[in-house]
Design goal:
Structural class of chain A: alpha/beta
Oligomer: homodimer
Number of domains of chain A: 2
Number of strands of chain A: 18
Low-confidence stretches of chain A: none
CATH topology of the largest domain in chain A: Nitrilase/N-carbamoyl-D-aminoacid amidohydrolase
Largest sheet of chain A: 6 strands, mixed
Strand content of chain A: 15-25%
CATH class of the largest domain in chain A: Alpha Beta
Helix content of chain A: 25-40%
CATH superfamily of the largest domain in chain A: Carbon-nitrogen hydrolase
Number of helices of chain A: 19
Strand order of the largest sheet of chain A: 5-4-3-2-1-14
Largest interface: A-B, 98 and 98 residues
Mean pLDDT of chain A: 96
């Protein structure tokens, strides 16, 4: 059977746009003489629609779009598209009102041919909030072009106890559809990228193809939905290999013939290449989905802001990125030099807004009430907040968006000023550890120095008091990141983290306390592009609690 | 049977404190010759522990606390306490690793005697993220003092299809335990308050008592957990009435005898009294849980900041609240007069920090780059942000927390400046519509004018440009709130909202678009005390999407 895997970029709630996109791909598939055309999970409404699903009017708009789509696709094609379906027994038997489902469009008719059984409700995923799990995945088999096709939706393919060595859920929908006679299995997914995801996903799908001895057709979304970055990477896999190289971070129609031998092996891609592509996609999608074109970034001469500016240029073009240097009396001389050099190399506009007059003015206003000039933390935070206000003033005056330049390490321990350097509409690198920030920056310089090497090499400093270094308050980042990965990404205890990293238990406990104390800052942190499987919005911790570890 | 309903205030993660509290109440119950003592849902670890439950070390600490508690309570007492229990079949059959459970402590032994079947996963609740639903609630029956006691946990009591006219879930655990022979039903709850909750809860529990003809013993948490405000309001209900008047917003041991006649009817309480109590509890709990004592509030002379300051005084005492007036050249004369009068009436410290010097200074810095002074939105937002920076400087210098003064109406339509007047550690009234703000303020003045009447009566204005009024940009709040309640609290479409309110469809659509456009501000909004069943953190909308309604 000739199958078109359509890796498309749906936008949440853009029914007209999504319908048009799906129709366009089905027409291309028809020209290529495909017999079956497959789109991603919830391709009709975009993923994740979240509480829009609670609005009856949204569901009506969805149903109208599905009806329109059904009549608009080429009649003779069998089109599988991810959509929402009513749970018909919710009223009588109870349960959530909807299913995460798959419609088969054929000959001007739409029928729901599959419903999702395994609903991810962890990390950034909240599907149990909206959908009822489907208890009978063995019914998700339909005949298309004379072949029995088993259909599963995303997480349905992630519960093979042979592959994972244990079950997360009671049933394995892939096994069920194969036992029910499926000659091939189609997986419609909206599976966002995180570090290592593409390689893991291939191994998992390949294991299923080998175990069940049927072709696995895996179709994934592509495109950015605020924090989530869908990478596509759609796969057609038999036990012998893949039909074509997966394509990451762009739309693609992949035509495969299930009768042919598939023998390729996916070529590995550097993690930095995937990170760059994910973040670039994320910046572009977010800025454009808000109807903006331009961003403004505070450039400190440090590596975080240099990396964000470089990625923003890759996303939007150099004419759409503005850098602002905001030196204080505590700023090093190289801070402005390095910032300007970066701007010159990137070819972006650069403005200087020295904050000394503002510092003087705030001191004048505050001194009578404080009985002294602001000091300590108040003085340090003031500088950061003046800069945050200047960036927002520039953005408001010119209709730009501010990008936040914080990284995951500083965000973890609260080494940042809320309403200051955390200001922004989007935080592109707040899910990258500082050590990853350096690695990605070096990788971006692999064919020539885009980011000034001094910004990469110099000791990190907030420059909020004379001679300040990050290491005055924190361990070196190589050590810090190791500890934070244990505590945050692996949920290890203070005790085990200390054993594993060699840092003393007291110091680990102090860092764990810092992570907890920063919850309220993260609660108000901008949306962050997700490139790990433990990003901030997927880690839902109480803002205030009294749990301590020693 | 003599039963002690222990309405206690557990703190999330404070195992030592929670154990001590539970032990203290059991000793009081023993003195009162109770035979059974009942504590709320998850009383051992506090509700909601959220992703702390994902940490193995947290679960170990929980289990150690349960073991300690088991030995510490009076041996002869039967103590029911909400706790976490392992899902023993997760490893083999799949499913979430935990149950939301109830332990019976008796004679130095702990046994899990009930597990929760119905897991709220909507609004602010995410229980499906952590817990496996219990399929056999009929097993939740245990013999205590010779009587068969049925045990359910919170939501388990909220699926009576006779009361609700429909089912939300497949099973009714209350019916199951009664069918299994329960002579009384105990409900351990952590059910946060929202408008009308206490009255609805009584009707529901009373309906169950009447239908099943058994005493219903409903024990609810009390106390503030960041956004959620547990009101207690524990109830002992038979078909004939309640055993004692429910007590709201404070800890209480309620001793009841199931053999006696219960004939009281709960006295209704004014909604404003409940709102005040909830917000006061919330401010106090949040400030103290963070280890702070004092708050600082920007006082504009308007009603929102006046109400927040008054409630903060009720929560913390007048010596722990500081007001700051920050007039600009656009501020009305009465703004400072009214702010100072409020401060005088409340007896709180008040400082003036005029922002004119800062405005001049920002203009000086920005003019060379802008080619003009900041104008329009940039100029308006700058003023709000200078104030936000001043408040944070005061808080940082003195170790105070900033309270945010925004209300739900302005938060809904984005009539606020992010990183400006939205700054703060907690937003006490951001779940109160503006019309509710006025009503609550008038109620607080019922025995004498605490809030200056001019602050209540004058036309709302942001005072960010000469002569500005809220009604320049928005409909009058009485109309606006009506529309927003339809759109947000009832999820009605633009079309139906227009029909119901009489506002034109175009104007409703424009307001709906404003609500959507403000999602990114709310994403970064401070934690908000929840007093409705559609607060911001329980309404999970995509930050950016393209769904529109007309």
């Amino acid at each position: 059977m000739r199958v078109a895997l359509c890796q498309i970029d749906s936008t949440v709630g853009d029914f007209a746009g999504n319908v048009a996109r799906i129709v366009e791909f089905t027409r291309r598939a028809a020209v290529l003489r495909a017999e079956m055309v497959v789109f991603p999970e919830l391709a009709l409404c975009g993923y994740p629609p979240e509480d829009l699903l609670v609005r009856p009017s949204f569901r009506q708009a969805h149903d109208a779009a599905l009806a329109e789509l059904t009549l608009a696709v080429p009649r003779h094609l069998a089109v599988l598209v991810g959509c929402v379906a009513e749970n018909e027994t919710a009223g009588t038997l109870g349960g959530r009102p909807l299913h995460n489902a798959v419609a088969l469009l054929r000959d001007g008719e739409a029928s729901i041919v599959a419903r999702k059984s395994l609903l991810p409700t962890y990390d950034v995923f909240d599907e149990s909030r909206y959908f009822e799990p489907w208890k009978a995945p063995e019914q998700n088999v339909v005949t298309i072009a004379g072949r029995r096709v088993g259909i599963v939706v995303c997480e349905d393919g992630w519960n093979d106890e042979h592959f994972f060595d244990q079950r997360s859920y009671a049933i394995d929908p892939v096994q069920r559809v194969v036992q029910a006679g499926a000659e091939m299995v189609v997986n419609l997914s909206a599976s966002p990228w995180s570090r290592g995801k593409e390689e893991f996903r291939y191994r998992m799908v390949a294991a299923a193809a080998a175990r069940h001895r049927v072709p696995m057709l895996y179709v994934n979304s592509v495109g950015g939905d605020v924090e989530l970055q869908f990478d596509g990477g759609s796969l057609a896999v038999k036990a012998t290999g893949v039909a074509a190289q997966p394509v990451a971070f762009r739309e693609q129609l992949i035509l495969v013939d299930t009768e042919q031998a598939w023998t390729q092996t996916p070529a590995p891609v550097a993690v930095e290449a995937m990170q760059q592509a994910a973040i670039v996609q994320g910046i572009r999608a977010y800025v454009h989905k808000f109807g903006f074109q331009n961003v403004v970034i505070g450039l400190s001469g440090g590596i975080d802001s240099a990396l964000v500016a470089t990625l923003a240029v890759d996303a939007l073009g150099r004419d759409h990125v503005v850098g602002i240097g905001m030196p204080s009396t505590f700023s090093s001389e190289h801070s402005v030099v390095d910032a300007r050099q970066l701007a010159d190399r990137l070819g972006i506009a650069f403005h200087l807004l020295p904050i000394a007059p503002l510092q003087a003015s705030f001191n004048t206003v505050l001194q009578p009430v404080f009985g002294q000039a602001p000091s300590g933390l108040a003085e340090e935070n003031l500088q950061s907040r003046m800069r945050g206000v200047l960036l927002m003033a520039f953005a408001n005056q010119h209709g730009h968006l501010v990008l936040t330049t914080g990284n995951k390490s500083e965000c973890a321990v609260g080494y940042c000023t809320i309403y200051g350097d955390t200001n922004g509409a989007l935080a592109p690198i707040a899910d990258l550890w500082k050590t990853e920030v350096w690695a990605l920056s070096r990788w971006l310089n692999r064919e020539g120095e885009r980011i000034p090497s001094r910004s990469i090499e110099k000791a990190p400093s907030a420059e909020l008091r004379p001679g300040q270094l990050d290491t005055d308050s924190l361990p070196p980042y190589a050590e810090l990141d190791l500890v934070l990965r244990c505590l945050i990404e692996e949920d290890l205890s203070v005790e085990i983290t200390a054993k594993r990293t060699g840092m003393s238990r007291e110091r680990v406990a102090a860092l764990f306390a810092k992570v907890q104390a920063a919850e309220w800052k993260r609660y108000q942190y901008p949306p962050t592009l997700r490139v790990s499987d433990r990003c901030w919005s997927g880690r839902r911790m109480p803002v205030a609690h009294r749990y301590r570890e020693q």
